[in-house]
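Archive maintenance. Older records in this collection stored only the sequence; we are now back-filling the structure field for every entry so that each record is complete. The fields below show one back-filled record exactly as it appears after the update. Entries are processed alphabetically, and Lrp/AsnC family transcriptional regulator is next in the queue.

ARCHIVE ENTRY
Title: Lrp/AsnC family transcriptional regulator
Organism field: Streptomyces tremellae
Length field: 150
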Amino acid sequence: MDELDSALVRLLQEDGRRSNRDLARELGIAPSTCLERVRSLRARGVLLGFRTEVDLPSLGRGLQAVIAVRVRPPSRRVIEEFRAFVEAMPEVLSVFVLTGGDDFLIHVAVRDTEHLHSVVLDELTKRTELADVRTSVVYSHMSRKVVAPA
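Back-filled structure field:
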């Protein structure tokens, strides 16, 4: 990636709905050059897609939590099956597969504590491979919107 690619990635992370013409104008390049660069970034897998950020409380999901999970036995099959199970849950925002004491961190957004209780006790604990589960309510959450290349 050169400086132009990095600038395009930054601008698109700030606002993925910017028009090609607007991007080209801001970068001082021809619209055709800009379009080709964006296409190249997508083809190379640098740009994976464009998303809309939503306000979780407006969707009835005002409570977030992080659930730490250990599964047993710690085999590839068990890890992959459990991961597929939690990724299919509508409450799940993200899943981290880890090394160390926990096998998973699961970030969820739910209506309220009753809904969170149900997710943990009625959904997760029905899995036979679940060895341990700990839940932490999220008071505040920051997610970096613009990531610069290393």
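Update note: The helical segments are 3-14, 20-27, 31-43, 76-87, 113-123. The chain has two domains: 3-43, 61-138.
Entry marked complete.
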